[in-house]
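Table S2 (text version). Query chain:
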Amino acid sequence: MKKVIKQDDLICGNCAYFCQHYRKTSKGFTAVGCGHCVFPRIKQRVRDQTCLHWRPRNSP
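Corresponding structure-token output:
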């Protein structure tokens, strides 16, 4: 079962510094269970982790 992430949760999946990783499939691209943080240096992260450098993502 997938965990639902709300936009106001203070987790890496909602952070401006988080870059989601994707996998190419026959139907396109699918998000995988991890990504990376680019501030202050690149480090592996999972969407529901959090850290001291969290910043809100700008909404389009």
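Notes on Table S2: The beta strands are 18-25, 28-37, 43-45. The chain is about 0% helix and 35% strand.
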